[in-house]
Amino acid sequence: MKQKTFALFTAAALLLAFCAGCSSERAAGAETAIVLSDSGVQVDGAAASADPESAVYVGGNIIYYHDGTDETYGEGGEAEKHSAEEAAAHTVVTIAKPGVYRISGKLSKGQLFIDLGEEAERDPSAVVTLILDDVDVTCTVAPAVFFYRVYECDTAWTAFEEGETSSYAGSGTADTTAAGANVLLAAGSENRINGSHVARIYKEGTTENLHRYDGAFYSCMSMNISDEGGAGATTGELYINADNEGLDTELHLTVNGGSITIDAQDDGINTNEDGVSVMTVNGGTLTVNGGLGAEGDGIDSNGYLTINGGTVWVAANERAGDGGLDADGDITINGGTVYAFGSRNDAVSKNSGQHYVELFLSEVVPAGSAVALTDATGETAMELTVERDCQSITLSSPTLSKDETYDLLVNGVPQEVYTGEPGGPMDGGRPVAPPDGQPPQAPDGEPPEKPDGAGQEPPSGDWPTEGGGGKPPEKPDGTAEKPGNGS
């Protein structure tokens, strides 16, 4: 095959200010220690209270999709229905007061539930920081960690929700520094969250949404996730195993640090307010394996996705037309290292501040293939091993050069890639960036046929690391009334 070359899509230099968000300084005040155990939860060394007036108490009810219901109750399938006995077997640890809570220990059936009351959404003091310090929580009927009612820092959005303004326009940026939902990963900690979800439940007598919470780790308000070691650190680890979606917020999500690994049957990460939500990555390492079931993206923002730093590895379902990167608004890459794989990744904005390449290959790249990006001298710029079949690859790194041309090799063989130009496949030289930021297309405007194999288990393999050597930390064993907006 004749070797094909291509250049980086370049963009105007637009760098967003780094948002420190929930850094270690935020947790500088007094901490409340919560130790989880199936034999009894302790708070600051004493047995946890059952009094709902306490800052922390056990024994609260869990929101779940009831069995024995019909189509007037909601939209859950039989597999999403749970008995009262199964729900009651879970220990619900409720945090009901603002503060900093350092949490350790294990609940084999339980939930961390943060609820600061009906007025919390508009109260700037209704802020909770969870320091996860070797936590292991499994919930089989609902999210295992659930920020239900805390302060929403996007006050323009809350005003719009309550009819105080006539319009609200998302901008692709979100300052979540003051968010009421904050998570710190303690230095050296390994935290395991194995969670379920709650299918849509109607308000009684209507088909309006009362509850719907799709992720194993869920927040109804904007949320920050950071490392206790400071901005960009990766000293703490968080593993999320989800029977539906992995990490979800109903508005904005900012990741400032930590090492986060997600395995999800549906979307790995979802920020789910249409046209509004902003998913921001400022630092840390994200390893997201989405769409392990019938469908699902790696990162799916119903609004915007902005990557300013860190390392992002994302893979999507290889059979359902899903993308490692998926957003209804702009996807902007201003820094960091990005490897994204899917049937079809959404296009990166040409207003990004860092160079990137977007490839739609003429043939499926099989799982286990070695992929390399080499410059004109034959030096390797980026290399990796793909874990699952893919046909769309997006790559970005600070080391990539605006004026360089690159070749893509799969298992050492130069690949034919499509651009958005009417002529279709490149015949050599450098392609021009697709018009209007649209993803590359085949000559007839449609991607080639997806591979066969619907319903098969995803193939196994190693996640890539920069330079092609090694894997991220081993995944742990194991399974994984404000209305919810859903995704």
Secondary structure topology:
Blueprint: E1 6-7, E2 31-36, E3 42-43, E4 46-47, E5 56-58, H1 84-88, E6 91-95, E7 99-107, E8 110-115, E9 128-138, E10 145-149, H2 155-161, E11 181-185, E12 190-195, E13 198-202, E14 209-213, E15 215-219, E16 223-227, E17 237-242, E18 245-249, E19 253-255, E20 259-264, E21 269-271, E22 278-281, E23 285-289, E24 299-301, E25 304-307, E26 311-315, E27 325-327, E28 331-333, E29 337-342, E30 356-365, E31 370-375, E32 380-385, E33 390-396, E34 405-410, E35 413-414, E36 417-418
Parallel strand pairs: 2-7, 6-8, 7-9, 8-10, 9-11, 9-12, 10-15, 11-16, 12-17, 15-18, 16-19, 17-20, 18-21, 19-22, 20-23, 21-24, 22-25, 23-26, 24-27, 25-28, 26-29
Antiparallel strand pairs: 1-34, 2-3, 3-4, 5-6, 13-14, 29-33, 30-33, 30-36, 31-32, 31-34, 34-35
Can you give a write-up of this model?
The longest helix is centred in the first third of the chain and has 7 residues, at 155-161. By secondary structure, the chain is mainly β. It has two helices and 36 strands. The strands form four sheets. The protein has a 20-stranded mixed β-sheet that branches. The protein has a nine-stranded mixed β-sheet with strand order 5-6-8-10-15-18-21-24-27, with no helix packed on it. Strands 1, 31, 32, 34 and 35 form a five-stranded antiparallel β-sheet that branches.
